[in-house]
Amino acid sequence: MIWIFLLIIAFLCGIFAGNVLMPPRYVAAAAAAAIPKSEAFFIKLKSFFPKLKPFFNRLKLFFAKLQLLFINHIWRKPDVLLFLSCMTAAVCIALRHGQDAFWDITNYHIYLPYALFNGRLGADIVPAGMHSYFNPAADIPLYILIKYLNSWPRIAASIQSVWLALAFFFTFKITGLFLDKRERVLGGILACVILAGSVAVSISGTSATGDMMTTPFILAALYITLKYAGRREGEFKFSLFAAAGFLLGCGLAFKYTNAPFIIGFAFVLLFSFGSFKESIKCWISFSAGFILAFALIAGPWLYKMYANFESPLFPFYNNIFHSPYFENVALIDPRFLKNRSFWDLFLIPFYAIYFRNMVVLESGIRTLTFFSYWAAFITITVLYFKGKLKKILPDGHQRKALILLTAFVIISYIFWFKMFSIVRYIMPMEAAGAVIITFVLFSLAGGKYKYFIISAAACSIAFYTMGPPYYTDFGPKIVNVKTFNTPYARNISYFYRIAGQTQDQTFPRVEDGSAVILAGWRLSYIIPFMNPNASYVGGIPADIKDYEDVENKLTILRETSFPDVFYKHKLKEAVLEKIKNSENVYVLLSSYAPTDFFTDALYHYGVKLNLKKCQLIVPNLTLPIWLCRAEKI
Amino acid sequence: MNTLKTYKRADIIFQIILFLLFGAIWGLLFGLNSDTYRIFGDNIYQNTIFFGRGLVPSPDFINPYANPLSDIIQYVFYSLAGARPVLVTALWGMFSGLLMFVMFRTFLLFFDKNKYFYSAVSVFLFISFLPAQNYTGAFSSPFLPLMLIFLSLFIMLRYLKKGTFRNFAVVCGLLCGAALGLDRVFWVFFIGQTAAVYYISEKKKDAAALFILCAAGGFIAASGAWLFFLIKNAVPFSALKWLFTMPGTYSGENYLILFSIIIFFSAAAWIYAFVTANKPLGTSVPFKMFGIILSFLYAGYLFFYFYKGMKENLLDYQVVLFSLGAPVLTASTVVLRDKLRHALLGVFCMGLFFYSPPVYNRRSVPPALSTLYYGGEVEKNSLVIVEKNRQYPEINETQLFPHLSKEGVLFVSAENKKYRNIGVLKNYENIYFLTEQRFPEELLGSPISQLKGLSGFPKNLKLASCAAIITPLSISYRFYPSICRLYQSAQQQSYWGHYKYYQ
Asked: What is the pLDDT of residue B364?
């Protein structure tokens, strides 16, 4: 039966392909004459099955109505059609990757909005390490999705993919700025394919870490700016630049790691406009929008941080703001900046061609996109100096926009390399890079099979990163947590053995007023499921120096070996106070971490683990977690 | 006229050279070390016994499914240059290139406009598809029978155009039957081609009967010797049930099913385009022939997909299905405009190329089919009881037989109850036990019951000594077989061999 059904579907697809994917003039003709192209087909069928005539008539009418609906509401509104197509693609990608259990998500992206909405700032002290004080604004959509759609992870992932869809939308639009009208659709699609295959998108494009969410804001600002670059006053309105500034301000306010793109964007703005007088007006409009967005989104949190910790950017840049709650050092993640030389700026694209760990991401990646950016950049430079760019892009505005976009990519890349070197933070540049690659492919390829060559080249770049076995999947939804009352066991296979036995589906209950110490990372996402009348404290460093022979050492290193700078807070006294005032003390402990990891740290907090009174929590986002009672010394 | 002929010949030679080179590169890219365990598993053994290289055929270890003739080319390559697997892979890649050439020439008949481009794209799609990638450079590959089938198809399509098929029915039938004799999955092609002959010919019954008769001749020519060999060596009929099961396993089923569905939809779009005559492709005869044969291929594939116990063994069928599915996939893009069609073909090519996950491990192996054997020699007229490798059933001990074999040495399976009789065992002066034991020294001095494979054997068998064997698969697959000498307690114990641990 299923094959008969599939056969019918195939025929319907054939009808769809023949009538809908045809050029618009055919579609219009088809709509007018109620699918005349398939008339012959239907007549043939009818001759075989005369009894089915009424059914086919109704089917014809149904398709005719469907086509009219499609033409009136989607086909004639290209941007709506484009966004729907982008959304479809993004949903497919999101469903393929699934909702993620990315390290950052479990460590703080769930806890932060929970703390914001439930007034836990002050009640909990560094439960997620220093990440507990990051701006939670970008995490609010994710939190709402988890809160209301946790049992519907596919729908949640599909909704979350709207950011990727918007990124596709603006990538498509920016690509259209540089291509001939006849090539815009194909060029836009290929740019989106390259973007979808870029390493940043393929690893966390559908995740909620804020990187993807902020990308469309920056791209939208870029699109507006580039579209009107070099235009004279009268051809645009200053309010447009205020809107662009607002969008860029949103991008930065939601995620401070977008700072390299702000620098790149500053260059674009500097040379975008014709006369100095016009430039001043545009800059003012742009800056007003930018400041307004930043003040609206980041302002409340900056104020909150200042009120609580005497530093608006707490815990960042304490070498400047000198908050008494943190040592006077800048909080940065130095793992990818160590031992970097000037030449690595040029060599990273080559390193990334082969699968390697810790080049620009903790887990291994391989990609051709970085290499392609450089190749595209060099090509554009050569074309420019040879004077061929003028022939390809005779319109001066287009040429200027392209050069500004290339400069944006290069400057952003340099500052990204200098400030972070973490690939997840590079998504806007990946989108801009995809546009440049597409432009270069369209400029260079020619002949009868031009589109085959372009498409094959673009897909090679994209699929090289995305294709198996190197694509990354961050896993499942946050449900199905199981708990077990059992003494602590060091053997990790033990968890999986008991996982099939009797289990309790409820979360472990800790008494009101208890203090729960979170020993390690990726634990705070459990807090929203636990007793809100308890206090949750953390920020204690693990001692892994003497553990050469521990099982699964790589996991431990990946999970615990954060740089020392993340422990340089001065909140120990407050933690001690919490513990002192609590009658019951518990410790949440990841199963990968041997208990000895935190013995010294817990001793400094005046408590000792009681390993006979433990509960095992088996979640589906991280490895199992122990909740053990602790005794005050 | 002569100039034109010369030009055509030169063109074809140029194409052959191009495909041979491409095949060699493709082979080196994907074929090297692929399907390793099969090379070291059944196939060397099957060929060795079939071509009579001094090894006594053991009915317990013959795989009736694998006709050694289908591996003849690889076997010759390995016999000549086994010490240089890179060379073998390049040579076999060249053979794949030859197959690609034949496919290319066949697909040319399918397309009218831009036929060279579409035909090349179709060949690339086929060779990029997972099963074809996997079979490049591998033993037990259906490439040789596929080449015969495509030769048959080429002749059929080419001369059907001219309406003189009957004269070539003999050749077509023979080639198709030979392919069927080498690999039974080609029965779907056989039925499809028969149906096509029946449909196209003027004298339908005569043409079909002639084709079937010739195919039977081809089948006998290709598999007769092997069937005779099986009967001669008294392979039990129960073993012939293998004829209805498929070798090999594959875990990426979803991928394959996905592409089967894509082919199905392509075929639907293609049929639609044909019926509505929007943009007719090719001349009608080859077009219909392709349709008829492909429908049979698809029917066969579905039959075997739903056939009980066959769900995991679809790789050979996928190759068969996609060999015609590839041009159909290419042709299905006819419903699109030129620009989109070309772009979509680019996506298909690169998508298949990059999304074909490796089925089998493509890992490094030592550069020879050698076996390091740390021990004495197995004497003449010995009996070797073999326990099958339980961890990797595909890596079997048969690869060791050519190295251990002497005149009159008989290998029997530990599961063969005939040899558990003390009366039968007494006929053999020396008895050995071949098994997978990583630490043979642990066995020394242990009771015989510790050798699990010998649990049902007479208790008077005692263990004398063991020797470690290192094979090219030892490191990559942790395959560490040992051979242990047994003695019967009535006999005097003697020391044999020595243990040496591989570093």
From this structure: 42
> Which of B264, B278, B336 lies at the smallest CB-CB distance from A10?
B264
Q: How far is B346 from chain A (nearest CA, A)?
A: 4
State the Cα–Cα distance between residues B449 and B55, nearest whole angstrom.
30
pTM equals 0.76
Looking at the partner chain, which of A14, A458, A467 has a beta carbon nearest the beta carbon of B268?
A14
A28 pLDDT higher than 50: no
Task: Summarize pLDDT for A487-518 with one digit per residue, the tens.
Answer: 665 555 555 555 444 455 566 778 888 999 99
- Cα gap A478→A214, rounded to integer Å: 24
The mean pLDDT of chain B is 73
Edge-first strand order for the sheet with B372-373 is B372-373, B461-470, B481-488, B430-436, B382-386, B410-413
Backbone phi and psi for residue A294, each to the nearest 5 degrees, phi listed first: -65, -40
Q: Identify which of B117, B273, B351 has the shortest CB distance to residue A463.
A: B351
Do the chains contact at B273 and A41, CB–CB below 8 Å?
no
- Burial group, residue A386, by CB count within 10 angstroms (0-12, 13-18, 19+): exposed
Q: Is A467 on the interface with B (CB under 8 A)?
A: yes
Query: How far, in Å, are A133, A480, A603, A615, B268 from residue A489 at the CA level?
Result: 34, 22, 21, 11, 59
d(CA A201, CA A390): 33
Of residues B66, B141, B61, the one with CA closest to residue B96: B141
Counting residues of chain A whose pLDDT is more than 70, the rounded percentage is: 78
CB atoms within 10 A of CB B78: 21
CA dist A261 and A249 (Å) reads: 11
Residue with more model confidence, A49 or B45: B45
The position carrying tokens 């006929």 is B427
Per DSSP, A138 falls in state G
CB-CB neighbors (< 8 A) of A8 in chain B = none
Distance from CA of A454 to the nearest CA of B (A): 7
Nearest C-alpha of chain A: how many angstroms from B452? 27
Provide Rg for chain B, Cα atoms. Answer: 26
Largest CA distance in chain B: 88
Q: CB-side exposure of B211: number of CA atoms within 13 Å?
A: 29
3-state secondary structure of A515: strand
Where do runs of H (alpha helix) occur along A445-587?
A: 450-466, 493-498, 553-560, 572-581
A24-32 vs A2-19: helix crossing angle, rounded to 10: 110
Q: Are A558 and A505 a contacting pair, CB within 8 Å?
A: no
Q: What is the pLDDT of residues A300-344, one digit of tens each?
A: 999 999 998 888 988 888 888 888 888 888 887 777 887 788 888
Using a CB–CB cutoff of 8 Å, tell me whether A18 touches chain B.
yes
CA distances from B496 to B397, B486, B487 (A): 21, 10, 11
Residue type, A556: I
* Cβ <8 Å between A455 and B342: yes
Please enumerate in sequence order all residues whose Cβ is within 8 A of that of A621, keeping only pairs 6 or more positions apart, or say none: A101, A105, A106, A475, A476, A478, A525
Chain A CB contacts of B358 below 8 Å: 469
Residues of B with Cβ-Cβ distance to A11 under 8 angstroms: 268, 272
In this prediction, does ipTM exceed 0.90?
no
Asked if B265 has any chain A CB less than 8 Å from its own CB, the reply is yes
Residue A26 is predicted with a pLDDT of 42
Contact B342 A451 (CB under 8 A): yes
Does B262 contact A at CB distance below 8 Å? no
* A23 confidence band (pLDDT: 50, 70, 90): very low
